[in-house]
Amino acid sequence: MVHSLRGTVSGFMEVVGRTVGSTGISPNVLTLLGLAINLLAAVVVYTGSFTIGGVVFLVASAFDMLDGAVARATGTATRFGAFFDSVMDRYAEAGVLVALIALAAGSGQSTLAFGAALALVGSFLVSYTRARAEGIGVDCEVGFLQRPERVIVLATGLIFPDLLLAPAIWLIAGVANFTAVQRIWHVWRILGEPGDGRSTPRL
User: Within a domain: residue 14?
Assistant: First the structure.
């Protein structure tokens, strides 16, 4: 079901990418625009306007998908563009979570602040473990709650804060860190146990 939804969204974004790409706008400009809107969402969340912040966060996430679609549609995809987009995505994702950590800590909600910190760490490790695995030649797409799913969960929590914000934060914290551990196990299993004649992972 998730893969089917991703396929539908991907197909739609390709159409939008061709349309936007025809204007001549650079994918890197869209990446920076998406980052700016994400940081705006973080500022709005920090003021306590969670619902508005969640909506702005969703709008920003549309730009996160659009830059890649434009690059593919216009044939301007580059290795630097992919690297730049990935780095900016980390900043974008950190923005709202850091805002939540600061707001919760400042208002004495230590449990929510701790959960948001764990969610931030888990989110980064999901991306890092995949990137590091692929850097040593191991495909590592296993696990749950990749960035699109994390965006949807977090945005939903923000839009309905009284009911869903805390559960959303703890869901991301738990599942993202579980996925990071799952990916470590996956790479260890692919590369083999130390002493079996294959390369031993370095810590």
Answer: no
* Predicted pLDDT at 17: 66
> What pTM value is reported for the model?
0.84
User: How many domains, the chain?
Assistant: 1
Supply the Cα-derived Rg of the chain in whole angstroms: 18
- Give 83-108 pLDDT, tens digit per residue: 898 899 899 989 999 999 999 999 99
Q: Please check whether residue 10 lies inside any domain of the structure.
A: no
Domain boundaries, position 133: 27-68+76-191
Looking at the predicted structure, is the pLDDT value of residue 111 above 50? yes
The DSSP annotation for 40-95 comes to HHHHHHHTT-HHHHHHHHHHHHHHHHHHHHHHHHHT---HHHHHHHHHHHHHHHHH
Give the CATH number, domain containing residue 165. Answer: 1.20.120.1760
- The token duo for 117 is 């910190």
- Which residue bears the tokens 């709005």? 44
Residue 3 placed within a domain: no
CA distance linking residue 53 with residue 46, whole number of Å: 9
